[in-house]
Automatic annotation (TrEMBL):
Domain of life assignment: Eukaryota
Database matches in PROSITE patterns: CRAL_TRIO
Positions of the UniProt region annotated as Disordered: 1-27
Residue stretches making up the CRAL-TRIO domain: 89-249
Coiled-coil intervals, chain numbering: none
Protein name: Random slug protein 5
Length: 253
C-alpha cells in the first residue's frame, strides 16, 4: 500500500487525486474552452469573469455547447433589456410601492438572505415587473460577500390570495432567474403557504428546471422557526421570524 504524505502527494511523488480534484480540473478545462467559443462569437464575453462562465456551465451539466448557447442568449438579452447597464428605481416605481422584496443578513453558508412577500404582489405591467426582477437580482448579486455566488430566499406567502396570483409574472421571473442568473439561487424556503396557492404552483411547476426544483423547500408552519434556524443563525434571522435583524427594502439594501 502506498504511503500518503501531506499536501496531497503520495510517497512515490505522484500527486494525490480525488474525484473532487478531477471534477475541478474538468470544470477549469471546460471554462477555458467555453470562453474561447463565446468570445469568438461575441467579443463582449471578454468582460465577464470565469465564475460567470462556470455558473452557466454548471447550469447545463458542463455541456459546453448548451452552456455557450445559453450564455450568448444572455449577453444579447442584457444588451437589449438593460441598454443602460442597470435598472434604475425610476423604471420600476409601481413595483417598489408593493414593498415586497427585502434583504438582510447572511445564512450559515455566508449567502445573503432575501425575503419576498408574495401576498403583497399585484398584477402589474409585465415589462415593469421583469425590470423589477432584474433590479432585485442585480442588487442581490452586488451585495454578495467575496467568494460567494449564491443567495438564500424566503418566499413568504402569508395573506396570498387569488388577487396575488400572477402566472405570467411568475413564469417571467422564473425565466429570468434560470436563464439569465443560473446557479445564483442557493435555496428557496417557501413559508406560510395557503392551500389555494397550490393551484398556481401546479401551473408553474412544470417550467422549473430540475436543478432549481432541488433547491425549493415548503416549510410547515409548526416547524417554521426551527427549519429557518437550520440554515440561519438567530443573530442573522429577520425579526419577523423571531430573529434579531430588521428587514431592509431591496432599494435601500
Amino acid at each position: 500500500m502506498e504511503e500518503e504524505l501531506n499536501d496531497g502527494v503520495k510517497a512515490n511523488g505522484a500527486p494525490q487525486s480525488s474525484p473532487e480534484m478531477e471534477n475541478n480540473e474538468v470544470e477549469q478545462s471546460k471554462v477555458g474552452i467555453m470562453r474561447a467559443v463565446v468570445e469568438a462569437q461575441d467579443p463582449s464575453a471578454k468582460e465577464v469573469d470565469n465564475l460567470m462562465i462556470r455558473r452557466f456551465l454548471r447550469a447545463r451539466d458542463l455541456d459546453i455547447e448548451k452552456a455557450s448557447n445559453l450564455f450568448l442568449k444572455y449577453l444579447s438579452w442584457r444588451r437589449t433589456f438593460i441598454p443602460n447597464g442597470s435598472i434604475s428605481t425610476s423604471e420600476i416605481p409601481n413595483e417598489l410601492t408593493h414593498n415586497k422584496l427585502f434583504m438582510q443578513g447572511l445564512d450559515k453558508n455566508g449567502r445573503p438572505i432575501v425575503v419576498c412577500f408574495g401576498g403583497r404582489h399585484k398584477q402589474n405591467n409585465l415589462e415593469e415587473f421583469k425590470r423589477f426582477v432584474v433590479y432585485g437580482l442585480d442588487k442581490i448579486c452586488s451585495r454578495m460577500p467575496e467568494g460567494q455566488e449564491k443567495f438564500l430566499c424566503i418566499g413568504d406567502l402569508k395573506g396570498w390570495g387569488y388577487s396575488n396570483s400572477d402566472i405570467r409574472g411568475y413564469l417571467a421571473a422564473l425565466s429570468v432567474l434560470q436563464d439569465c442568473y443560473p446557479e445564483r439561487l442557493g435555496k428557496l424556503l417557501i413559508v406560510h403557504v395557503p392551500y389555494i396557492f397550490m393551484t398556481a404552483w401546479k401551473m408553474v411547476y412544470p417550467f422549473i428546471d430540475s436543478k432549481t426544483k432541488k433547491k425549493i423547500i415548503f416549510v410547515e408552519n409548526k416547524k417554521l422557526k426551527s427549519t429557518l434556524l437550520n440554515d440561519i443563525d438567530e443573530s442573522q434571522l429577520p425579526d419577523t421570524y423571531g430573529g434579531q435583524l430588521t428587514l431592509v427594502p431591496i432599494q435601500d439594501a
